[in-house]
Amino acid sequence: MQKSTEITRIALVHMITGFALFLAMGLLGYAMRLDQAGLWNFDPSLFYEILTLHGAGMLNAALIAALGGMIEALNGSTPLDARFLWTAYVISCLAFPIIVVATMIGGVGAGWTMLYPLPYHSLGEWSVTAALAVYVSYFLTAVAFLIYCLVFLTGTRRAAGGLRRALALDYLFSFGCEGADRLPSPAQLAATAVSIDGIGTVVLGCIWLIPRFLDASGLIGPMDALFVKGVLNGFGHMLTNLTMYTALASLFAMLPVITGRELKTTIPIVLALDLVILILIVPFGHHLYQDFAVPAAILMVSEFASFASTVPVLLVAIMGGLILIYRSDMRWSVPAILVALGLWGWAFGGIAGLMDAVIPINQVTHNTLWVPGHFHTYYLLGVLAFTFAHMYHLVRERSGGRESVISRLAAWLYGIGGAGFVLMFMLSGAMSVPRRFAQHIPAWQIPDQISVVFVGLISLALVWLGIEIFWRLASAWRD
Amino acid sequence: MSPFLGSFLGASILSIVSIAVSTRLSPNVRLKRNDPRRDIALAAAILVGLLVLFSPLDALADRFFSAHMVVHELLLFTMPIALLAARPIPAVLMTPWRLLPSRWRRSIAKRWNWTRGSLVSFAYLERPFPALLMWTLVLWLWHAPRLYDLALRNEWVHTTEHILFLVTSLLYWQPLLSGCRRGALNNNPQRVLYLLAGGMQGCLLGALIAVDNNVLYTDYLLLPGLSVQVVLADQHLGGAIMWFTGPIFCGLLAAVALDNGDIRVAADRNEAPWSK
């Protein structure tokens, strides 16, 4: 099956959109860090509006970019319906202005999680309509994600000749004796696993969102706050984690390119990616450690499931990636640097998350800046590093240009800036600095001020890489 | 069931019908003359017209901004899509024209200089960018408080407003659903941009109305039994209807109006390397 030009263009559009949104949301993040560092003071209400937009927008940006990577990784091996991919893209993009208006004009500053009694009880800070708009935006994102999942699942099933083959279950349970001749590629396996969990995630999202709509319309009474929190965390946790596993497809696409070695589907890879389907569902309970009403058994299961969730990452991304890179004569091109940074980010962010999932540690780090440190590492130096590597490679390959020394320096700068930025978050977390605070007292501001410098480095790197990609985009778009 | 809820449900069902019958439309496919879906689309368009003109929704629209916005959404989305799927306009216009003796037709054509050259300006308006611009301008101008209040006071102005909504909407949707006509959008990225631009402008207008804490359309305050709070809540609801229905329609229309592209051919050509 040949690669389709239209599918490549769809992938490019997704990745470029994700990159542009990431830049815009990153600038908002920069503004927040400047405010916390005491270098640019603005109204706390505005801070919380920006915080809400930054959180929700960045999630959207990373998801769109990662989906673009997956689309391109599947191109040529899996039949994908271009019409529905475009449709999902339109819906995703329309979700974005809704949230911009709801936060920046409507004044919603409830954080992207909007936990009870927010967002409907805002003490006059924003209207119910504006709060509802944020939910509508999430709903559209969920609908778009459902369409992507259905397109991927239909494609991988069709390519492999059934779901069982798409998950390589025969191969797995016969320990490699059966079905070795018709194995799906690692990217197809990841797409199938993400799609199956993605459909469940959207169902969970509907369980959360539809009653919230009914609540706003007055058709039902207020919902149980703990139930809402549990379902919300289930949905949010799954969506963010699925974004990470979607980005795996970009890693799988880039590893053979940068190492010159073929990435084969092996038993550990099949095991790890099939396990993702089960492992991803359980650990969301680690967001509920502080809720005394949650049964202890659920919390303990969540803790062990959190440990288990590191297995696929370790087996597939880190071990698999390093094995392929080891003695491969890899050249330090921009994609190679970004992939190496991504592997480091996943390992480092994973360890930080694992620590936070330990109940006694969570008693100290919960709701401190440790948590943003963990997920910023995963996203900035994981999901986005892999996706940008893929995007840069795709644009360069199609445009036929050569990369400059400055571009390689920019890629390293992205890594240095990113590492410094997330380390300052973690240092603040270790100092028990609370998260989601607009104003920081002077004793907390030293890491904030250092992190401002590192965010500046990230911005410089991204602006350079962005200009280069923009410059080459027209020739990359052509056949 | 309240008349508003009933009308809203009716409007939703009709919208779904109009989109459902259009699902086989794509930029390169036109429904054949005897296709039953054209009749269904025409019936949906007529029902929307009846709903707008004679149902309780019409009475409610005079009193409540939110009901008025439902009418606008029907005129901006459902009715033009149904009409474009049904394509009754050429038949309706051409039948009486063809009944005229050929001598008369030639004479009229000559008198009005009804040639291709004189239709250039109209053809220009059918092109995507002018159509989008006009749709946006008409929508935003008529929602300016002064003009909107004027339309509430004067039935003729109101009718003009609705006719303009329908005409510009037909022009807007035409490049997406017009088959192989000149001015149709040529590829999916263009269509996606067009849908996004159309969806976002309506979305933004609705949002600005929905989050404004002042009564924008003050004529509603003159109606008996409506307090400032009720009018404001109604304005927020109306804004929200406008805000949210645009993206939903554009999303649905994306599924309709986009072409499958070359992957359909690629998929048929080959399943997968290992399945051979």
Helices and strands in order:
The complex is a heterodimer of chains A (479) and B (276).
Chain A: H1 5-36, H2 44-74, H3 82-105, H4 128-160, H5 163-166, H6 169-173, H7 186-217, H8 225-259, H9 267-279, H10 296-308, H11 310-325, H12 334-356, H13 359-365, H14 370-399, H15 405-430, H16 445-477
Helix pairs in contact in A: 1-2, 1-3, 1-14, 1-16, 2-3, 2-4, 2-8, 2-14, 3-4, 4-7, 7-8, 7-9, 8-11, 8-14, 9-11, 11-12, 12-14, 12-15, 14-15, 14-16, 15-16
Chain B: H1 3-21, H2 36-54, H3 56-63, H4 65-86, H5 88-99, H6 102-111, H7 120-125, H8 128-142, H9 145-153, H10 155-177, H11 188-211, H12 228-257, H13 263-269
Helix pairs in contact in B: 1-2, 1-4, 2-3, 2-4, 3-4, 4-10, 4-12, 8-10, 8-11, 9-10, 11-12
What descriptors fit this protein?
heterodimer; A: 479 residues; mainly alpha; 16 helices; 75% helix; 0% strand; globular; B: 276 residues; 13 helices; 74% helix; disordered C terminus
In a few lines, what is going on in this structure?
The complex is a heterodimer of chains A (479) and B (276). With 479 residues, chain A is an all-alpha fold.
Structure description:
The complex is a heterodimer of chains A (479) and B (276). Chain A is mainly α and 479 residues long. Chain A is 75% helix and 0% strand. In chain A, helix 2 packs parallel to helix 4. Chain A has helices spanning 5-36, 44-74, 82-105, 128-160, 163-166, 169-173, 186-217, 225-259, 267-279, 296-308, 310-325, 334-356, 359-365, 370-399, 405-430, 445-477. Chain B is mainly α and 276 residues long. In chain B, 74% of the residues lie in helices and 0% in strands. Chain B has 13 helices and no strands. Chain B has helices at residues 3-21, 36-54, 56-63, 65-86, 88-99, 102-111, 120-125, 128-142, 145-153, 155-177, 188-211, 228-257, 263-269. The relative contact order of chain B is 0.12. Chains A and B meet through helix 1, helix 3 and helix 4 of A and helix 11, helix 12 and helix 13 of B.
